[in-house]
C-alpha cells in the first residue's frame, strides 16, 4: 500500500514519548506531519485522516493506563479505515493496560491498528529509574520498529488488527492527587516551569502560585528545573519513589507487537 501521509500525535510533558515516536517515524522513512498534543487539552481541533494515511500515536503511561487528560484528545483523532501505530512509553515499572487501552481507543475511532510498541522513558518521578532513557539502544529499536512497520505496509498482505499485551477491563485509574510540586528555596524565578506546564497550572509571574486543581502531576516542572527548585512539600510520594528505585531498577526492554 502506498502511504500518502504520516501523522505523528503525541502527549509528552517530559519529552520521552516525543523522542520515541519521532524515532519510529524516522524508521518509517517518510516525511511526517507532527501534532504535539501536550498543550492541547482545551483545543477543539479535530483531525480526520484518510484511508491512505497512517497515524503514529504515543502517550506516556500513568498508573498503568493512558493519562486521563489524553483521552479526550485521542477521541479527536478520526480515521477512515486509516492505519495506526499505538505507542506507550513507561518508566520501567510496567505499562499494564495502557497500550491495549490506546489501541482500543484508536480502533473505536476508525483506525486499523497495524502495530504497537511499549517503550521505556526515564521515570517522571525519579531520575534514578530508566535514567536518560530512551537511550541510543532504545532509539535504535524504535527506528528498527519503524522499518518493520514500513515493510509490513509495503507487503500488502498483513493482519490489520494486531493483539497487544494488556487486560480488559482495564485497571482502575490512579486516585486524583491533592498535592502538586511547588517552588522551594532554590527557585530563581526563571519561570521555565510555567512554560512547560501542559495545563497552565503554574502562575506566569509567580512560580510559587499553583492551581492544584489543574495540575496533572506530570513532573514537567520538576524535570525542567536545573536548580532543583521544585518539589512536593512533605514528599508524599517518597514510598512510591522508594519502591520504584528499589524494585524497578532492573532494565526493561521495548516490546513490539506487529
Ligand atoms: C502521574 C504519573 C504516573 C505514572 N505511572 C507510571 C506507571 O504506571 N508505570 C510506569 O512504568 N511509569 C509510570 N510513569 C512514568 C512515565 O510513564 C514515564 O516517565 C514516561 O517516560 C513519561 O513520558 P513523557 O516523557 O513523554 O512525559 C508515570 C508518570 C507519571 C507522571
UniProtKB/TrEMBL annotation:
SUPFAM superfamilies for this protein: 4Fe-4S ferredoxins (SSF54862), Flavoproteins (SSF52218)
PROSITE patterns assigned to the protein according to its UniProt record, in alphabetical order: 4FE4S_FER_1, 4FE4S_FER_2, FLAVODOXIN_LIKE
Molecular function GO terms recorded: FMN binding; iron-sulfur cluster binding; metal ion binding
Entry superkingdom: Bacteria
UniProt domain Flavodoxin-like: residue ranges: 6-150
Keywords: Iron, Iron-sulfur, Metal-binding
InterPro entries from the UniProt entry: 4Fe4S_Fe-S-bd, 4Fe4S_Fe_S_CS, EFR1-like, Flavodoxin/NO_synth, Flavoprotein-like_sf
Classification via Gene3D superfamilies: 3.30.70.20, 3.40.50.360
Pfam families for the chain: Fer4_7
Keyword match Iron: yes
Keyword Iron-sulfur: yes
Residues annotated as domain 4Fe-4S ferredoxin-type: 179-207, 209-235
Stated name of the protein: 4Fe-4S ferredoxin-type domain-containing protein
Native source organism of the sequence: Fusobacterium ulcerans 12-1B
